[in-house]
């Protein structure tokens, strides 16, 4: 940070006006906060921290596209002071609202970029955006009085056992709704998406066996990145009666070898299309080409038989769009003959 004193003062002024309050460890300070939305103070837990608000945030910053789209879905664009790290185009339904939100960084936001937006609340889909060389640690931001939210999906160890990744995603909606005083739209969104998950799960009852699936997210420097155990696709697989072929790897998106993919010999392959991100190996066409020219992968039954599904890559990460990817996988399984 080039101007820590200047930025710190500016941030303090905005926070004094906005009225959000936390201690350095992210908990409520000793004084009793003033009444907020609904006539009472609001607190919520987020990835090991207790966040306290004495009024709804007015200058929230979303550090990634998933968080941005959740806030837009809840109609909170007027209370957003910034967004960052866009991987793909904003869907048409959000474009008008998104145009009202300043872009503080086209890629991952730095500490200086974040603080120049003078936020009173910061929202992120994953904890790795809060580091010293990125937006700053949660401890650093809490010391400045800024509450920081991390998706519950990224820290399942902090949540009740047995809750699925979709359960945690829907809990995010309701936690954010509580913070902003937007409980009704948050509850409505969670209910709609729970119904969509249940509908996709109807496929599971019709599956003749338990097919295996590899989710190919990216190909970088010729190496495949696939969904591991902790990513949302493992839960998608379970819902539709399939099994993630790499659910023994305790990572979200591990780098593996093509030979290891061949060894798992999946019944079908889901390709995440990240064309709009624009990196080498991101598009679905490039991924298909890489598989077709590989001497071993090209001989897999899934490749030779065309048992390949394409879904928007961003929908394979937890977001308001993830139920759409689930629906595509469920429908694709039916089309490929994996359901009666």
TrEMBL record:
InterPro entries: ABC_Transporter_SBP, ABC_transptr_periplasmic_BD. Residues 59-340 form the Fe/B12 periplasmic-binding domain. SUPFAM superfamilies: Helical backbone' metal receptor. It comes from the Bacteria. Keywords: Signal. Pfam families: Peripla_BP_2 (PF01497). Residues 22-41 are annotated as: Disordered. Residues 1-26 form the signal peptide. PANTHER family: IRON(III) DICITRATE-BINDING PROTEIN, VITAMIN B12-BINDING PROTEIN. Belongs to the bacterial solute-binding protein 8 family. This is Iron ABC transporter substrate-binding protein. It comes from Streptomyces subrutilus.
């Amino acid at each position: 940070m080039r101007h820590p004193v200047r930025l710190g003062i500016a941030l303090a002024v905005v926070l004094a006006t906005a009225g959000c309050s936390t201690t350095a460890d992210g908990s409520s300070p000793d004084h009793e906060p003033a009444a907020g939305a609904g006539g009472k103070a609001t607190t919520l837990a987020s990835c090991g921290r207790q966040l306290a608000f004495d009024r709804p945030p007015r200058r929230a910053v979303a550090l990634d596209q998933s968080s941005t789209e959740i806030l837009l879905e809840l109609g909170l664009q007027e209370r957003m002071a910034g967004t960052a790290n866009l991987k793909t185009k904003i869907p048409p339904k959000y474009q008008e609202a998104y145009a009202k939100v300043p872009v503080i960084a086209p890629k991952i936001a730095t500490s200086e970029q974040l603080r120049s937006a003078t936020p009173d609340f910061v929202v992120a889909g994953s904890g790795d955006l809060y580091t010293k060389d990125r937006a700053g640690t949660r401890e650093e931001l809490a010391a400045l009085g800024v509450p920081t939210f991390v998706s519950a999906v990224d820290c399942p160890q902090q949540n009740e056992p047995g809750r699925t990744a979709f359960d945690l995603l829907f809990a995010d909606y309701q936690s954010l709704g509580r913070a902003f005083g937007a409980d009704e739209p948050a509850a409505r969104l969670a209910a709609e998406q729970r119904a969509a998950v249940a509908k996709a799960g109807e496929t599971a009852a019709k599956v003749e066996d338990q097919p295996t699936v590899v989710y190919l997210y990216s190909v970088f420097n010729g190496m495949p990145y696939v969904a591991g155990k902790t990513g949302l696709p493992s839960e998608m697989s379970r819902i539709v009666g399939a099994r993630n072929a790499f659910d023994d790897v305790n990572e979200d998106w591990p780098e593996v070898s093509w030979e290891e993919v061949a060894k798992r010999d999946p019944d079908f392959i889901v390709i995440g299309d990240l064309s709009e991100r624009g990196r080498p190996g991101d598009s679905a066409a490039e991924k298909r080409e890489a598989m077709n020219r590989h001497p071993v992968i090209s001989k897999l039954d899934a490749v030779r038989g065309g048992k390949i599904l394409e879904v928007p890559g961003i929908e394979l990460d937890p977001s308001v769009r993830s139920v759409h990817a689930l629906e595509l996988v469920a429908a694709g399984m039916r089309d490929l003959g994996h359901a009666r």
